[in-house]
Amino acid sequence: MLILCGITMRNNQLKYLNEAKLSLERAEKNFIDGDLLWTTVVIYYAEYYALYSFLQRIGIKCENHFCSILAVSILLGEDKTHIINQHKEKRIDALYYMRIGRKDEVEKMIQEAKIFVSTLDNIISNLTDYDIKLYRERINLKKPEKSPS
Fold it and tell me: What CATH architecture does domain 2-136 belong to?
């Protein structure tokens, strides 16, 4: 479920974006330590935090990963969410089925995650109030107008 919230969510947006960047660093450390399972998991969360930062910036709260990714797909296009969807499946495989990618595959995931987080950071940094208004309208979450009394 998506919930329309006020633009005052900017502080949370910055926290999520910062956490995305810190998670990328954690993923790299896990990779260097040879822990491919947790590298895979943390890569996905780094991307998710960046994606959620975008939603927070435009005033949308969503506590369901599937719905959050779907909302961003609707707003920015599926080309912007293709990688996070792939990495979400790899996280599920790693956590629940112990199917972990090869070292070169996980290393490629780190590079893709860096691009993903950087792309969302760039989009967020360049948002105008007008852009936010358009995104909110596009997701069809306009604030209800007051009925005439």
Answer: Up-down Bundle (1.20)
